[in-house]
Each structure stands twice: as C-alpha cells, then as structure tokens.
Amino acid sequence: MMHSVNPAHTAPTTQTSSKEERSAHIAVFTFPLFILIGAVIAFLKPDPFAPLSEYISMMISIIMLCMGLTLTLPDFSLVIRRPLPIIIGVLAQFIIMPVGAVAVAKLLGLNPMLAIGLLMLGSVPGGTTSNVVAYLSRGDVALSVTMTSVSTILSPLVTPIIMLTLAGEETPVNGATMAWSLVQTVLLPVIGGLIIRVVFDRLVTALLPILPWLSVLAIGGVVFPAVAKSSESLKHVGLIVILAVILHNLIGYVLGYLSAKLFKFSVPVARTTSIEVATQSAGLASGMSGKLWSPEAAIPGAVAAVWHNISGALFAFIVRRIDAAKGTPATKANHPETPIAS
C-alpha cells in the first residue's frame, strides 16, 4: 500500500517521463524491501516491536490521511464521466477477492484465524500501490486513482457486510464494531486529508514528496508488530500463508483482467482493473485483523504488504515486455482520457 505522488496528476500526455518513472520504480522496489527487512528483524527479535501494536490504529489513520492528502476533487470526476469501468472494477474487487479468499482458505485448509485474516485481506479496499503499478504497466492511472478512492470510501459499509456474509460460524464477526472502526481509521482520515488538500493545496503540494515515506513508516508500524506478536505462529504456518497470499493475489489479477475484457474495455483499462482487483490495502487488513481477532489473523495482511508490491513490479515488467514484443508505443496508456473500449 505505497502512497506515491499521484501519477494521475503528473503523468505526461505524450511520452513517459523518465524522472517520474524512475521515482515510481524506486517506490515500488524500495517499499517491499523495507517491509521485508523489517519483518525479518521483527520475526527474529520480536520483543522491541511487540509494544508498537498499541499504536496500530493510529498508524492506519496516518496511512489513510496521507492517501486523502494525495487526492483532489478532479479524481472523483471520472465517477460521473466514466462510471461503467469504475462500477465494474469496484464490484469485481468486492466480489472476486472475498470469494477467492474463502476458496483459497478451503483449498489449503487454513485454520480459522488465518482464514479470517485472508478474508479480511480480500474484503478491504484497494491499496494505492495499485496507482503506481498502473503507471508502470501503462494502464489508465486516473481510473486507478478513482477506483482506489471509491472502494476506500465504500469500505466502512461494504467490508463489514462481506465479512458477516462469508466469515462462517467458526469465527464471530461484530459488524457494527468493524464498521465504526473503519469509519474512524479509514473514512474520516481520507475525507480529512481531502479537505486539507482543497483548503491548503499549495502547502500540501509542497509536502507531497515526503508523503510516500511517511506512509511507508506507518505501514511498517502496522506490519512489524503484527509479525512480532505472531512470530511463534509464523514458524509453523509461514509457508502456507505465503502460498495462500500468492494464490489469492493471482486470482485477482486473472479474474480482474477477464472481468474488464468481458465488457470489451481497452487493454489499459483491463490492466488497471486487474491491478485494482488484485492489490488490496494489506496494511489495513493486517491492522484490522490483529485488532479485531488475533495476532495470527494479522499474518496474511502482513505477508501481502510485501507480496503485493513484488507482484505489482512483476506484472509491470511482464506487460511491458508484451508491449515491446508487439511494438506497442507508450503514448496514451497513462493519459486520463484513455478511451474505455477498444
């Protein structure tokens, strides 16, 4: 869930800026490296990190505030101008990923806490890593930003409904508590960040370069204590959780792309939908699962915080190789006005 300077606001209309692309590459590769190293240290030496669990809600709020600060009102204009791909993308995300989580949990025989953590990962809104990956993958960046924003705003209502519907009898879900927690830690910070951006646009614009790194530190503040508090469990379930997260993520990429092509959307829009469906707000999932259930339930989200960035970089590499093989020029791929249908 990397919060980079919003590519939709800066992406060129005729050719890819090498400086912006280099910055995006750094964001995608540096973030998982930092989280991976920190998670390994927290696993080996959990005692210094475990007390940080008291601040997880605050860290999630900081992440969401940073997201809100990167948004502008024009980000939401696409809801009016191009509603169909947004509706399809958000519906696909909130259907494919939760159902995929249940299927993977049953396939691999995950215990109830790991299963609920994977379901939470599938039920939270999209992560803004997707915006950077869409940029690198020559997708429709403006559409990516809008999909992420819409799914985030809907999450306090939709996520508890999904969890109540699919969690099963083995794991109790308090829908009201979850909804209120999402309002406090997600909705209010995002809306607050957006208001601050509107009122103090010049100041926030000057601060945009530091927001990605503030978000990275906050995500570390969510993931590291989750790993520390579940270090013993990780010794026994680490490999199966990694496999579960990878399969779940792959389901999102494949079915997300197919759902867009079913409506005959263009390749950039299909790529964007694929990325949006597959890339979840892993830090949020980890933090909420640890808070509402147990440290073990937070493990899938913690693993996904690393893997979703790695898979995003791999996806961008693969589609760029495909474009190169086909001789596809990088012209309108990142332009906000990319046509929907091919």
In short:
The chain is mainly α. The protein has helices at about 5-10, 20-45, 55-70, 80, 85-110, 110-125, 130-135, 140-165, 175-200, 200-205, 210-230, 230-260, 265-280, 280-290, 300-325.
Describe the structure.
With 342 residues, this protein is mostly helical. It has a single domain (7-326), classed as Up-down Bundle (Na+/H+ antiporter like fold). The chain is built from 15 helices and no strands. The protein has helices at residues 7-10, 18-44, 56-70, 78-81, 83-108, 112-123, 129-136, 141-166, 175-199, 201-207, 211-229, 231-262, 267-278, 282-292, 299-326. The two termini are 30 Å apart. Keywords: Membrane, Transmembrane, Transmembrane helix. It is found in: Membrane.
**Coarse shape:** globular
- CATH 2nd-level architecture: Up-down Bundle
The beta-strand count equals 0
Strand content: under 5%
Distance between the termini: 30 Å
Domain module tally: 1
Major sheet details? none
Structural class: mainly alpha
Radius of gyration: 18 Å
Low-confidence runs? 1-5, 10-16, 331-342
InterPro entries: BilAc:Na_symport/Acr3 (IPR002657), Bilac:Na_transpt (IPR004710), Na+/solute_symporter_sf (IPR038770)
Subcellular location: Membrane
Membrane topology: Multi-pass membrane protein
Transmembrane segments: 24-44, 56-74, 86-108, 115-136, 142-167, 179-200, 206-227, 239-258
